[in-house]
Structure formats: structure tokens, C-alpha cells
Amino acid sequence: MASRLCFNTVGFLMVASVGLLLQGANAGNTYIVGDELGWVVPPNNSYYQEWANSKTFQKGDSLVFNWTTGTHTATEVSTKEKYDNCTKMGIILIDPGFTVTFNENGTHYFLCSEGTHCQQGQKMIIKIGDGIAPSFAAPSLTAAAAISAVLISTIVTFFLN
Ligand SMILES: *[C@@H]1O[C@H](CO)[C@@H](O)[C@H](O)[C@H]1NC(C)=O
Ligand SMILES: *[C@@H]1O[C@H](CO)[C@@H](O)[C@H](O)[C@H]1NC(C)=O
Ligand SMILES: *[C@@H]1O[C@H](CO)[C@@H](O)[C@H](O)[C@H]1NC(C)=O
Ligand SMILES: *[C@@H]1O[C@H](CO)[C@@H](O)[C@H](O)[C@H]1NC(C)=O
Ligand SMILES: [Cu+2]
């Protein structure tokens, strides 16, 4: 009973502090990449870039990479050169439904590392704000996104238990 109460209190505090974090980060918009199509091999090479260009992403916004057919990855690569070359080495976000939140301005290069999906246009460049990362935070940007994802999945797991 006592430990149960303790866990509930911890859970509440975690949710409350995440709520505050989200508020502090301007509780942005959430976009499903590709809308109804999701994140798959697109009908043409420019599909996802056209999709991205039709939005204005700001600090605090989130992207959901969602797919229900095929095998895909949402892989973030670090440079335009790797992006242009469809390089498969990068930070891989695999679970369908993966959400990434951007807490700073910057430019991000996403692609699918399965087969030739990237060459077929399953790739896009995302600009947050003016697309310029603050120099002091640049190396830790991706880490911050990953950590917030882990934190959220921890909380979800907590409630499912
Ligand atoms: C790519 O496909 C989308 C959806 O079918 C279409 O709206 C868009 O015009 C196409 N772009 C090109 C360059 O063909
Ligand atoms: C993911 O895609 C499936 C199938 O298209 C859809 O039913 C589901 O609502 C999508 N999830 C989100 C979060 O958009
Ligand atoms: C470009 O892609 C090829 C094939 O995947 C790879 O062998 C090569 O190292 C890549 N080059 C760069 C600069 O990323
Ligand atoms: C981020 O981008 C927005 C929109 O372009 C801009 O107003 C802002 O000055 C940029 N810099 C920071 C640090 O937010
Ligand atoms: Cu793919």
C-alpha cells in the first residue's frame, strides 16, 4: 500500500514535470509525416520534400514517422552530403509511430535506410525555424530529442504497467 502510493506520486510528478517541459518548449504542433500516406516509398521522388516544404516548422514541433506496411527506418544523417548520397549510417528511429521533437532551430536530414527506398524518394530535409542551429547546442540536439523520446516511452510503459 505504502509503496503503491509512492509509485503513484512519482508517476504524477513525472507527468507534471513533462507537462511543464512541454509548456516551456512552446508545446508545438505535431505533424504526421506524409499525412495519410505515412512514411513509406512515395509515389514520386519529391513527395516528402514537397510535403515538408508545405509546412513551417517551429521550435517545439514534433514529427511522427508512421507506417503500417513494409519495413522502413526513419534515419537521421548528419550532413547534406550523406543525405544526397543516401548514406545508411545514421541515428535510426525504428518503431513505427516514432515521434521526434525539435527543441531548437536547425536543419535535419531524414531518410529510410531500407533497400533503395531513399533513392526512390523516401527522404526529406526538415528546417526548424530559420534552419540554423544555435552553435552552443548543436552537438547535443539529437541527444536531447532521443532523451525526450526515451522519457516519454518510460512514462507510457509506467502507465501500461
Ligand atoms: C508527387 O506526387 C504527389 C501525390 O501524388 C503529387 O501531388 C505531386 O504533384 C507529385 N510531384 C511530382 C513532381 O510529380
Ligand atoms: C498511422 O497510420 C495508420 C494507417 O494509415 C493510421 O490508421 C493511424 O491512425 C496512423 N497513426 C497516426 C498517429 O497518425
Ligand atoms: C555514398 O554511398 C556509397 C554507397 O552506399 C558509400 O559506399 C559511400 O561511402 C558514400 N559516400 C559518402 C561520402 O557518404
Ligand atoms: C529561429 O527561427 C525563427 C523563425 O525563423 C526566428 O524568428 C528565430 O530568431 C530563430 N532563432 C532562435 C534562437 O529561435
Ligand atoms: Cu523505407
UniProtKB/TrEMBL annotation:
Output the Gene Ontology cellular-component terms. Answer: plasma membrane
Cross-referenced InterPro entries, in alphabetical order? Answer: Cupredoxin, Phytocyanin-like, Phytocyanin_dom
Which superkingdom is the protein from? Eukaryota
Signal sequence coordinates:
1-27
Q: Which UniProt keywords apply?
A: Membrane, Signal, Transmembrane, Transmembrane helix
Q: What is this protein called?
A: Phytocyanin domain-containing protein
Species this chain originates from: Dovyalis caffra
Q: Which parts pass through the membrane?
A: 141-160
Molecular function terms from GO: electron transfer activity
SUPFAM superfamilies per UniProt: Cupredoxins (SSF49503)
Q: Which Gene3D superfamilies match?
A: Cupredoxins - blue copper proteins
Pfam families according to UniProt: Cu_bind_like (PF02298)
PANTHER family in the record:
BLUE COPPER PROTEIN, PHYTOCYANIN DOMAIN-CONTAINING PROTEIN
Phytocyanin domain ranges (all copies): 29-130
